[in-house]
Write a structure and sequence with these properties.
The protein is of the alpha+beta class and 138 residues long. It has a single domain, classed as 2-Layer Sandwich (HIT family, subunit A), CATH 3.30.428. The protein is built from two helices and five strands; from the N terminus they run βββαββα. Strand 1 and strand 2 form a beta hairpin. Helix 1 runs antiparallel to helix 2. The chain is globular, with a radius of gyration of 15 Å. It starts with 12 loop residues before the first strand and ends with a helix. The chain binds zinc ion. The site of zinc ion (ZN) has 5 residues, from loops. Zinc ion binds next to loops.
Length: 138
């Protein structure tokens, strides 16, 4: 058994995958559309991957960003790869809005206001999955 949160897929719903990568949608009432792009195997650093896989994961991150911009028209997209607690390659792709609880701080930073508490709607989720599958199958 692994204690790795990414290997164990302890949160989120897989909305796209191939044999190496997956896109996971996190249900978050203040950060709708919050996705993570995860490498399926337990690999620690981007430079542990060969160039093709490095390219493929970044392509996937940018496709997710593109689709999130189309659907949510956010103020900014935040991309983050930290993994200090979970040393397994994963990229956070987070649509940010002026009204979100932490803007302009990082969403892990100091909370400045209450959020809107508007989780992703069924239609937005449907659009996200459809556009992502269309975009990543090209
Ligand atoms: Zn892992």
């Amino acid at each position: 058994m692994t204690s790795c949160a990414i290997c164990s897929l302890i949160e989120g719903e897989i909305i796209w995958t191939d044999n190496k990568l997956r896109v996971v949608l996190l249900e978050h009432q203040d950060y709708k559309g919050y996705c993570r792009v995860e490498f399926i195997s337990h690999i620690k650093e981007m430079t542990d991957l060969d160039e093709t896989l490095q390219f493929n994961i970044m392509r996937c991150v940018f496709k997710v960003e593109e689709v999130l911009r189309k659907i949510f028209n956010p103020e900014k997209i935040n991309l983050a790869s930290l993994g200090n607690k979970t040393p397994h390659i994963h990229w956070h792709v987070i649509p940010r809005f002026k009204e979100d609880p932490h803007f302009p701080n990082s969403h892990w930073g100091e909370k400045l206001r209450e959020g809107l508490h508007q989780p992703i709607s069924a239609q937005e989720k449907k659009d996200l999955i459809a556009l992502l599958n269309q975009s990543l199958s090209q």
